[in-house]
Amino acid sequence: MEPVPNVTRADAAQAVRNPLAFIAERWTPSSRTVQRAALAALVMAVAIVVTGGAVRLTGSGLGCPTWPKCTDDSITATSAMGVHGVIEFGNRMLTYVLSAAVGWAIIAARSQKPRRHSLTRLGWAQFWIVMSNAVLGGIVVLVGLNPYTVAAHFLLSTALIAAATVMWQRTREGDDVPRPLVGKSVRQLVWFLVTATLLLIAVGTVVTGAGPHAGDSSEVKRIPLNWENVTKLHAVLAWIVVTLAFALWFVLKAVDAPKGPLHRTRDLFLVLLGQGVIGYVQYFTDLPEVLVGLHMFGSCLVWIATLRVLLSLRERAEIVTNLPGQSTESALTRA
Prior knowledge:
single chain; mainly alpha
């Protein structure tokens, strides 16, 4: 067993001034460790959306009626608040788990050698989105679950998932200039697909804001729209996204595109089909809470799958970082 090195006063001062640099000087993670850290942040970004949906679907949105405390007199939920207080407070605590996952991703990216500034920036982008969304979540409570703030809360989570997905992909690539795998017209079609998917998600938040699941058993303001009409618009947009995905798959086959974009498009199409089935079943069964929750989870998967299609349209040289004393290999990988 190797002796633990002594920590001097200078080391302690450096750790306080710049803890990330202090860790990076003493630890070099493998490529797999960095990839796992980025994946953990992505998984937690999805988990916080699902648990947030559970808060709303169980009517626990005001289980903790104030913020940052749970009540005026208590930081935590009390027994008098019942199960709604436990659910709401539990979701708040999960934010710390998400923050820890993002922190691990930042530390791992910062410690990788050679240092990759682009990867670290993606980690910090997630951190600031999490902090902004935590504040916005508090505002949501303070304004009594105003549907417009709830929609903004979800859209910020969508931005977090985007940053986490890009970082996860970039951990498996180097920093060389990307080489396109398909032509300009195909890339434009994919950008249409990404835009349509974003619009689909945005309209989905309007369906939520106008629909029957207000998030609390008390009287909660709703968006003054007929939720069934908005749902039909949402369905039309979903069919547009499905059509674009199907058309993209045929175009990629026609131009003999590499397997990466083809496989990612196939994955997206399958996720869209599953999401569509859940959407129609929940609509015709009067929106049961379990199916609505699954639909929210599916929304996250659709967004991730769409971004993976976009990221699969180019390739970079992959850098494999090993532990000190081992060689660093480079290979060409496709997204």
